[in-house]
Amino acid sequence: MGTKLVLTAALLSLATPAFSADIIAPAPVKAPVAAQIFSWTGFYIGAHGGGAWSRWTGIDPADPTATWSSVTASGGVVGGQIGGNYQISNVVLGLEGTGAWSSVTLSSNSPFGGGAGFIFSLKNDYIATVAGRFGVAFDRVLLYAKGGAAFTRDKYYVNNGLAGALAGSASGSFNRTGWLAGGGVEWMFMPNWSVRAEYNYMSFGAITEQPVTTGNLVATPANVKLNIQTGTVGVNYHF
């Protein structure tokens, strides 16, 4: 009996350390999952709206004594954009096209003389751009500059306000191509969605514009330059 107790005690003393080791053995630790790095790379589509300011400067090319004179107008713009970005480190390169309807209109009954019924209207009814973008990303905030080509149209309508044989009117539509420089800031406020604010300056060189006349109205040609400034806010969906 004494021998059995001694053997049992010996076996228990040998088993206890192994059993204790099994109990206190630490659970395996999983490697931490690396945080996903945000990138602006990809395509996007969106919409924008805001204000626009146009300045036309013209001169009569047939009058050697003429001097340049200017008129200005303002209005709203509403449109859309589509583009793509490619990010290298914190540098973002992109290409974007925009198109917008414009309500910029100069309407007056006496900018160049005429009677009480004289009407003169000059407008830019659309503004479109194709531009490259260069930006610096601060995680989900992007500061960028842009430059490229700009397109718009001058539309004229003139009515002398008279009746019968004295009535006369003139109209014309002249498409323009110029250059664009601008910049803005964009913020990715939730997955796939961003908001932005942007300013652009557009310059269009002098072209000869002569509206077509009917009735008792004569319109002389003019060399006309145009500058447009826009300030817009927009939203983009990123694919």
Which series of helices and strands comes N to C?
HEEEEEEEEE
Whole-number average pLDDT? 87
The helix/strand class is mainly beta
Spatial separation of the terminal alpha carbons: 82 Å
Shape: elongated
Helix content: under 10%
Strands across the major sheet, in which order? 1-2-3-4-5-6-7-9
Count of DSSP E strands?
A: 9
User: Low-confidence segments, ≥5 residues, pLDDT <50?
Assistant: 1-12
Radius of gyration over all CA atoms, rounded: 35 Å
Write down the oligomeric state.
single chain
Described by strand count, sense and barrel closure, the largest sheet is: 8 strands, antiparallel, barrel
Q: What is the number of helical segments per DSSP (H or I, 4+ residues)?
A: 1
Description:
- With 239 residues, this protein is mostly beta strands.
- It has one helix and nine strands.
- It has an eight-stranded antiparallel β-barrel with strand order 1-2-3-4-5-6-7-9.
- The protein is elongated, with a radius of gyration of 35 Å.
- It starts with a helix and ends with a strand.
Top keywords for this entry?
239 residues
Q: In terms of topology, how is this protein built?
A:
Blueprint: H1 2-24, E1 42-59, E2 69-88, E3 91-108, E4 119-138, E5 141-159, E6 168-190, E7 193-209, E8 212-215, E9 222-238
Antiparallel strand pairs: 1-2, 1-9, 2-3, 3-4, 4-5, 5-6, 6-7, 6-8, 7-9
